[in-house]
Amino acid sequence: MRLRVDQQFLLQAASVVIIIGVAGSYPLLAFGSKEVVIAAVIGCLMSVLNALAGSITLEYALDKSYSTFFKVVFGGMLIRMVILLGTLYLLIAAFGIQKIALTVSLLGFYMVFLILEVLSIQRKVEVRNEGSLS
User: Fold this and answer.
1) How far apart are CA 13 and CA 52, in angstroms?
2) Separation of alpha carbons 15 and 134, rounded Å
3) Among 40, 50, 76, 118, which is most exposed with the fewest C-beta within 10 angstroms?
4) Pseudo-torsion of CA 24, 25, 28, 29, nearest 10°?
5) Can you tell me the distance from the alpha carbon of 93 to that of 24, in angstroms, rounded to the nearest whole number?
6) DSSP character for 116?
7) Residue 39 to residue 33: CA distance in whole angstroms
8) Which of 63, 48, 50, 41 is nearest to 127 (CA)?
9) pLDDT, tens digit, 9 for 90 and up, residues 102-113
10) Are 9 and 116 in contact (CB under 8 A)?
């Protein structure tokens, strides 16, 4: 089994990181401490990895039956959420990463990537349905 990633989703995700990174770099570097910057970057990285895992899961589930598709996609979302929360707890409790910057960065990027992921699912399901109608 070869892992596939939606190239359009990758481009959108990279664009989000670049745009937010450019827009947020000055205030973050000018007013944030080193710990805040590190926490914000870790939060972004966690969200990017989560989004990539979601894209891979979607590509895997796309050619499956509807029930399998929904089990894989929504089960994958649940598993990824548990992993994110566990990692968040570990980073704060064990490593003392700055809580607010990590949480805000993680949730901010998570929300943007979640929107992109839902739009990607919608686009792919529509294409899949159009293909089955012809």
Assistant:
1) 9
2) 34
3) 118
4) -170
5) 26
6) H
7) 10
8) 63
9) 999 999 999 999
10) yes
